[in-house]
Amino acid sequence: MNHCACEDETPDLSLIDDVLERYRGQKGAIIPILQKAQATYGYLPRPVMRYIAEKTNTPLHQVFGVATFYSQFFLNRRGKYIIQQCDGTACHVRGSGKIIDAVQTELGLSPGETTEDYKYTYEVVYCLGSCGLAPVAVINDKVIGRLKPRDLIDHVKELE
C-alpha cells in the first residue's frame, strides 16, 4: 500500500520506526528493513533510504547499494497494477514480441514505464515459470496464458 501521494512529497517516516526499532543493532538487517519499508511505501523513496541509513548508522551509499543490487527493490513509485509480460524463449517463440508491440501501440506504455496517474506499470521479464502457457503475462499475481496480442490489451482495459 502506498502512503506517498506523489513522487515529490516527503513520506511519513514514522511509519517505519517500529521496524527500525525491531532491528536496532542487528548486523545484516538492511535487507529486511528495506523489504518492510518497501511493503509500507510501495517502493523505496530517497528520504526513506536516507532515514534508514541515519537510524541504522549505515552509510547511505551502502543502503543505496543494497537497494540497487537486488531486483526485488524499486526506487521509483510503481502503478496500482503491475503488468509483467514474459519474453523468455518459449514466450518469444510463441509471439510475445507482438504482444509487447501491441501494448506500446494501443496503451502507449513501453516496457519499464509507469503511467503518470500511477495506475499501470509495464515490465518485460524473462521467465514467469509458466512456459506451458506461453505466451504468458501476470497482472498483480494473476497469470494469464496463451495470449494473443489483443488479449493482454483487453485484460488491461477490464481493470479500468
Overall shape: elongated
State the helix count: 7
Average pLDDT number: 93
Name of the CATH homologous superfamily of the largest domain: Glutaredoxin
Tell how many strands the DSSP assignment holds. Answer: 4
Structural class: alpha+beta
Assembly state of the chains shown: single chain
From the alpha carbons, calculate the radius of gyration and give it in angstroms: 18 Å
CATH classification class of the largest domain: Alpha Beta
Within the CATH hierarchy, at the fold level, what is the topology of the largest domain?
Glutaredoxin
Question: How much strand?
Answer: 5-15%
**Intertermini distance:** 19 Å
Strand order of the largest sheet: 2-1-3-4
Description:
The chain has helices at residues 17-22, 30-41, 46-56, 60-69, 89-93, 96-107, 149-159, and strands at 81-86, 120-125, 137-139, 142-144. It is α+β, with helices and mostly antiparallel strands and 160 residues long. The protein has two domains: 13-69, Arc Repressor Mutant, subunit A, CATH 1.10.10; 81-159, Glutaredoxin. Strands 2-1-3-4 form a four-stranded mixed sheet, covered by helices on one side. Strand 3 (137-139) and strand 4 form a beta hairpin. Helix 2 packs antiparallel against helix 3 and helix 6 crosses helix 7.
Describe what is shown at a glance.
The chain contains 7 helices and 4 strands.
